[in-house]
Amino acid sequence: MLQTIGRRFDYPRVWQHALLKRGVIPGRVRRALRDADIVLSDMPWCPPIPGPWSIKPWFMVSHNLEYRLLEQAKGWHRRAAAWMHANESSAPRQFRDIFACADEDRDFFLSCDPTRQLKVQILRGGVDPNAYLAPPGARDRIRSQLGLT
Q1: Would the CA dihedral through 126, 128, 129, 131 be positive or negative?
Q2: What residue numbers bound the domain in which 109 lies?
Q3: Is the pLDDT reported for residue 128 higher than 90?
Q4: What is the pTM (predicted TM-score) of this model?
C-alpha cells in the first residue's frame, strides 16, 4: 500500500528504508530472515534489519550509485540525493561486504571503508554473457575470502 502511494506521488523510497531499519517487516520476510544462512540486501534502500538474524552475514548488492541517479532527478528524488549519499557512504560499516556491478561503485565503497577490510567484489552484468562468466574455482575462492566456507 505504502509503495503504491509513494509511486503514485513520485516519492522516493526513503520510507522503505526507515521501516526496514526499525525492523518493521512482514511475517514472510521475518521467516525468510530466520531461515537464511546469509542475507543479501538488494541495493542501499534495504538496510540490515534488527533482530535475531543480525548475527548472520549481511551483504549488499549495488547495481549503481543511487545518489547519483537521485541527483539527476527532479522534485522529491533530487532532495533525497544527499540522504542517499550519506546512506551509501555508511554501507561499508553496515555490511560484511558489498558486491558492485561497476568499477565506479567498487571504488566509491572502498573509499568509504574505514577498516580497509572490504573486498567489494565486482559482479559484472549486461547483455554479453561472456563478460560475466566466472572462471573455474571462483565461487569457492570468493566464499573462502568472505569466510563462508
Answers
A1: negative
A2: 2-126
A3: no
A4: 0.76
